[in-house]
Amino acid sequence: xxxxxxxxxxxxxxxxxxxxxxxxxxxxxxxxxxxxxxxxxxxxxxxxxxxxxxxxxxxxxxxxxxxxxxxxxxxxxxxxxxxxxxxxxxxxxxxxxxxxxxxxxxxxxxxxxxxxxxxxxxxxxxxxxxxxxxxxxxxxxxxxxxxxxxxxxxxxxxxxxxxxxxxxxxxxxxxxxxxxxxxxxxxxxxxxxxxxxxxxxxxxxxxxxxxxxxxxxxxxxxxxxxxxxxxxxxxxxxxxxxxxxxxxxxxxxxxxxxxxxxxxxxxxxxxxxxxxxxxxxxxxxxxxxxxxxxxxxxxxxxxxxxxxxxxxxxxxxxxxxxxxxxxxxxxxxxxxxxxxxxxxxxxxxxxxxxxxxxxxxxxxxx
Length: 366
Description:
It holds the Pfam family QueG_DUF1730. The chain contains 16 helices and ten strands.
């Protein structure tokens, strides 16, 4: 982090903070807030979560030690963090529950339907930094959008952007939880905002609705059971006991957010690039399963879905097809991948076929 140029006039940091929030909105962010760098309690919570093994195969969650919870260790000289949020629910998107209840369709988490947000938000954070530089001269900063060991939800909470709900997702009183987060670490001694208070009360709808019961206690998520982890982060076999509860969710899961009462205040995205591509807000599983690897790579270019890889894509859809109503089309689709070069794909296709065969035999006996 570079040192600011000497100046004969000390900046009016309170006025600058107000300008930063105004500039953030002009750049397309829904809101911005400023926090300090003290995260001692969150550090303890993270360590306890890691000690319980709830991070599964996400070794990167433990790899960076205290740099995740101590911003000034990750970026020396950091005094403040400017947190921003950007709404992502595209207007006109197919109603989520309708897709989830259509067992022949594939459900993709609403955040992943359009363009990947990482570069888009990082570029806008860079523009925000350039506006700050234009106002006060050189200063030290680093922009992050899910690209480094950052406790982004805790920082956003401390910046007043929302509270961390019982499902461990950030909730904003005026905008629900359908938004992305980004950060600008800076060495500017800006005035900080008041942290957001929690407003979940006695509600536990997110805990009760989780298909795989991954929310093992309020504010405690066992990622090893979470469908988002299973369909994106996990690279091997999905545990058999969790396959049926996954239903038709092929990339991520939104149930805990969809049921949250605060999302009646959710705001539509203003970024056109977040609009669904390739009808992924409700496309049929058989159609998606037929994509070749070349089609997958071409159609998911610039999208978060790329993270699962083609093998993971077929694995996830095979599970969903195993949970779909039996039909000649479903059976034929599964057979096309029964001899796939990937052992992971073959295993999940065999499970799906066996499940349909068992249902068929049961129906014949009935």
